[in-house]
Automatic annotation (TrEMBL):
<keyword id="KW-0547">Nucleotide-binding</keyword>
<dbReference type="InterPro" id="IPR052705">
    <property type="entry name" value="Gliding_Motility_GTPase"/>
</dbReference>
<protein>
    <submittedName>
        <fullName>ATP/GTP-binding protein</fullName>
    </submittedName>
</protein>
<dbReference type="GO" id="GO:0016787">
    <property type="term" value="F:hydrolase activity"/>
</dbReference>
<dbReference type="Pfam" id="PF03029">
    <property type="entry name" value="ATP_bind_1"/>
</dbReference>
<comment type="similarity">
    <text>Belongs to the GPN-loop GTPase family.</text>
</comment>
<keyword id="KW-0342">GTP-binding</keyword>
<keyword id="KW-0378">Hydrolase</keyword>
<dbReference type="GO" id="GO:0005525">
    <property type="term" value="F:GTP binding"/>
</dbReference>
<dbReference type="InterPro" id="IPR004130">
    <property type="entry name" value="Gpn"/>
</dbReference>
<dbReference type="InterPro" id="IPR027417">
    <property type="entry name" value="P-loop_NTPase"/>
</dbReference>
Amino acid sequence: MVSEHPDASDGETAALALKILVAGGFGVGKTTLVGAVSEIRPLRTEELLSEAGQSVDDTDGVDQKVTTTVAMDFGRITIRSGLSLYLFGTPGQDRFWFLWDELSQGALGAVVLADTRRLEDCFPAVDYFEHRHIPFVVAVNCFAGARTYGAQDVSRALDLDQGTPVVLCDARDRDSGKEVLIRLVEYAGRMHTARLLDSVG
C-alpha cells in the first residue's frame, strides 16, 4: 500500500505511507516489534491462550507466553519527513493464516522475524512471501540465552534466495526495530525498481 497524504502544501513533496507486514512463527516477537517501534498506541488483538488451543499451539521454547494475536497488530512509524510506515503484524498460528492474503494486499514488503531456537517456525512465512514475490527481510530476534548465529548461517539454513537480507535485531528495542524497517524499505525499493525496469526493457 502506497498512499499520499492530501494535506501536503504546494511546493512540498506529498507524504508517502507504505504498508509493511511483520510475520513469523508463534511467539517470535511480532507484537513486541510493532509495539516497540510504533509512535502511536498500537492496536492489538491478543487473547489469552486457552486449554482448547493447547493441542494446536506449540509453546515449546516459549513457555512464558500467555497471550496470542488472533487477527493482527497495527502500528505506525515515521522513518523520515514525508515517509511513514503502517505496520501490520500477522498472527503466527496455522489456523489464522487465512488472514494473510487479506493483510498482504498492497504491501510494499515484509519482515519475517526468526528465532534461532525454533528456526523452522519461520519457513511458512518465507515460503509465503517468496511464492508471491513480496520482498522481505529476515530479522533474527536475538533472545537471551539463545545461541548466536551469523546472518550467512541463517540464510543458508533457510535456503533464502540470493540477496535476501538477514539482519540481527532486538524486537524490544525501538532503534533496532527501526533499522530492520529501513533495511526492508531500501531492499523493497531496489526490488520494485528492478521489476519495473524489466517490464519496460
